[in-house]
UniProtKB/TrEMBL annotation:
UniProt-recorded name of the protein: Desiccation-related protein
Pfam families per UniProt: Ferritin_2
PANTHER family: DESICCATION-LIKE PROTEIN
UniProt key word Metal-binding: no
Organism field: Trema orientale (Charcoal tree)
Signal sequence residues: 1-19
Domain of life: Eukaryota
Length: 301
């Protein structure tokens, strides 16, 4: 009888362990206090990406597909379904569900915080594009108008997040924290690579009705992020002078990287300056009209 009970307990423990691995639930793991804020901060960008991609592909977001992950935070402003072709919608939908997974993984590891108020309206994106070109485009840029516009708007998002993960990784102390960030970085980098590759195929295509090439759009957006970040060159468009290409030999730049083709790193402060759209981590704005959430972001407001 005792042997049977022991065997049953071992089976139950094994099942629990396997379930935890499948679900990616690391809440039982030890996360050093110094890692918690660093792991929570990326939720701000993961919320933005999840809502933008889900709405773009489906016309609705977290409030419908995973309301528990929002932790009661306000619904995004102005997000809507985009006019996407079948391939682009397929890719963006995959990204959307991937972001849901990212939110789960982070919230399974640390407590997290409510979804911040996000402004994903066409006007919000138009302001960024106008700022990048130093003038108002007419008509205003609409990210939801077609597939090319949506991909250009998507160019704004995962890359900023991946540079944040690159910057965070060396600061982490715990093995669980490093494993989580490595996993997040891998997929965020993949998303950015897919977006850049799809855009690179049309690098010389002119974005209607502006008569400006896709490559020029990406170059202007990257230049703007460098300016707002106030930390030097950490962003590159799809076509660069050969001296800035891989090994100084190519102008095509389907993946951005430093002189060793390694990913650039950004601090939370640099990221806030960019996503607030004003170069100041202490002044909320841009995609976060009331500011980002979490101790790091709130400490600057």
């Amino acid at each position: 009888m005792a042997t049977a009970i022991v065997a049953l307990l071992l089976i139950l423990l094994l099942q629990k362990s396997q379930s935890s691995d499948i679900l990616g639930d690391h809440r039982g793991s030890s996360v050093p206090d110094s890692d918690v804020d660093l792991l929570e901060f990326p939720l701000n960008l993961e919320f933005l990406e999840a809502e933008f991609f889900l709405f773009g592909a489906l016309g609705y977001g977290l409030d419908k597909v995973a309301p528990n992950l929002t932790k009661g935070g306000p619904s995004p402003i102005g997000a809507r379904k985009a006019n996407l072709d079948a391939l682009t919608r397929d890719v963006i939908l995959q990204f959307g569900w991937q972001e849901v997974g990212h939110l789960r993984a982070i919230q399974n590891t640390v407590r997290g915080f409510p979804r911040p108020l996000l402004d994903l309206s066409p006007q919000s994106f138009a302001k960024v594009i106008d700022l990048a070109f130093g003038k108002k485009l007419s008509p205003p840029f609409d990210p939801y108008a077609n597939s090319l516009n949506f991909l250009l708007a998507s160019y704004l998002v995962p890359y900023v997040g991946l540079t944040g993960y690159v910057g965070t990784n060396p600061k982490l102390q715990g093995a669980t924290s490093k494993r989580l960030v490595a996993g997040l970085l891998g997929v965020e980098s993949g998303q950015d690579a897919v977006i850049r590759a799809l855009l690179y195929e049309h690098a010389l295509t002119k974005v209607e009705p502006y008569g400006i090439t896709v490559a020029e759009f990406t170059n202007r957006i990257s230049e703007l992020r460098n300016q707002l970040g106030r930390a030097g060159l950490k962003d590159e468009g799809l076509v660069v002078p050969p001296v800035r290409g891989a090994e100084g030999r190519v102008s095509g730049n389907v993946l951005a990287g430093d002189r060793f083709s390694l990913a650039f790193a950004r601090t939370p402060e640099e990221i806030l300056r960019i996503v607030y759209g004003n170069g100041n981590e202490r002044v909320a704005g841009g995609f976060y009209p009331k500011g980002a959430n979490g101790r790091i972001a709130r400490s600057h407001l």
